[in-house]
Design brief:
The structure holds 2 protein chains of 2 kinds. By secondary structure, chain A is mainly alpha-helical. Chain A contains 9 helices and 4 strands; from the N terminus they run ββααβααααααβα. In chain A, 57% of the residues lie in helices and 6% in strands. In chain A, α2 crosses α9, α3 runs antiparallel to α4 and α6 packs antiparallel against α7. Chain B is α+β, with helices and mostly antiparallel strands. Chain B has 14 helices and 12 strands. In chain B, the strands form 3 sheets. In chain B, strands 4-5-8-6-7 form a 5-stranded antiparallel sheet. Chain B has a 4-stranded antiparallel sheet with strand order 9-10-11-12, with helices on both faces. The chains are: A mainly alpha, B alpha+beta.
Amino acid sequence: MGNLVSWARSPWGDSVLTHISWDLFWASLIGGLLFLVAHGGYMLFSQHHKRDSSEVDRMEADRKGLPANVLRHGFVARMFHWVMAFSMLTLLLTAFLPIVGVQFAWVQWHWMAGILLTASIMFHIVHATFVLDFWSIWVGPKDIPEFKAEMMREVGIDAPGPKPGKYPLGNRLYHLAVVVAGLSVIVTGILMMWRVRTGLVERNPYMLTDSTWGITYVVHGLMGVGFVGLVIAHIYFALRPEKLWVTKSMIFGTITRRQYLEHHDPDRWVAESKSGSNVG
Amino acid sequence: MPPIRDAMSAFELFQPASVGDALGILDRHGADAWVMAGGMDTFDWLKDRIKKPKVVVDLGMVDELRGIKDAAGGLEIGATTTLTTVANNPLVKERFPLLAEAALIVASPQIRNQGTVGGNISQDARCWYYRAGWPCYRAGGNICYADTPTAVNREHAIFNADRCVAVNPSDTAPALVALDAEFVIKRGSAERVVPAREFFIGPGIDITRLTVLQPGDLLTAIRIPATWAGKAHYFEKVRDRMVWDFALVNIAASLNMSGATISDARMVVNGVAAEPYRLDAVEAAIKGRPRDKATAEMAADLAVQGAVPLRHNAYKIPLVKALVKRAIRGEAEWATS
């Protein structure tokens, strides 16, 4: 960890962490971009394919009640996504533009965007717990068969294993990474509100010990630079041609009946029409 | 750990004889190099071993950085011109007595003989927590020790504090901002001219610097346009010790009068923020008004809007108000007390 974090000598003579090295920002940025190149190259040769069209025809015939457009993301979920995206991009830009040389008074914008992110995440937790299918986005041992089947399909073998439910495995793993990084930056960011003048809380820089503050700053920094790579990957996948139908569903809410059958397992994700009723 | 005084860490000393040589050295050594003009700020840092540069570039041998010359009715002042020279120069006194008065009141005669105008405006913050080597924001850490419930912060900022509450300590800086001066900065073969107001930066922009100067940059000259030559002016510095001290607050004002009416103005206070704090609202409000008590009262109230005092520096608010009143009325302390 030698040069990856900065240490300082506190007034009491203790060696304390202060923050991460900003070289890690560049590492995350370059890592994210290299991932794009590697994945883009890989996709040129990938054998991965969606469900065979004849099978989809048969499934479509078997499920006469399926609507032409299947609801993937309701209005509230879409609003949450875009509010979170706005706040996250604002947080990243306000945090890292000064590091790349674009200097401006960033702190106020940063903590305000952080408040927005925190509020949106709190809303999302409640919404996902009580309104959405909470477990559909999580990963666990039960997903091992799907993982095996997906790997087989990647190498061109039409594996019989389960298709994804509402969210593909990669999507769920990404969500898990975002949960870990997001909650870390939120918790540490809220603590850091006591270090700056916000008007929301009374400043108290001595609320934590120097050592604990150091860890707080380092965790905030590490997860922050981690988000650089995560967001690059997210935007990349959102813009890939074969994924645009998913991206459009985050704008318009629905996917077509055939997209639903081509990419998902109807038994694991029961389709809803735009009005919200279960069908099929 | 208490500072170790009078025992500097080893460094490589360069004494270039030209600006070109100096720029070449700065280019080669980048952030490892420390630019020294009069040494008045430098030696505090080096002897306390808070700063330990590998290379010191002494500008004392660069003649082309010294001197004052006419520039189309204005002046161009070399960055390493001493404060005594600036204060006593007939052209400065005739055209910009505001600057002459500010330079004359910096520190002590000995320091003015050695200290330079470029050094005076580029000097670092005087916050003692920072100067003591504590790992504060300005030193690259993550806390401001001066902005804590138990801090000693009588001399610190009341405006634009953004995590760090250190203030700009310069006397000549507010005068140069009030004169719409421009600073010539060279870097390698490139040259840029930065308005005085943009030369100074607050902690919101960069918490580790008071100016835009980056490693490799060299401030070579200060250009003062003719705009404010011969106009009404006011400078006053309030300090704890009249004989030799940094300003608690100082004020520099340039006023363009049309008869008895103020047609344009620049008002800048220092010692209240990390950069010379220009009173834009006051400047706008006093245009077209007479230089009288009513204008002064109105401007004084306007000047302190947005001030946020710390535990021990609320006195700066009435102090700023008083200085603004005096500047507008053109009356020195002894005339209104």
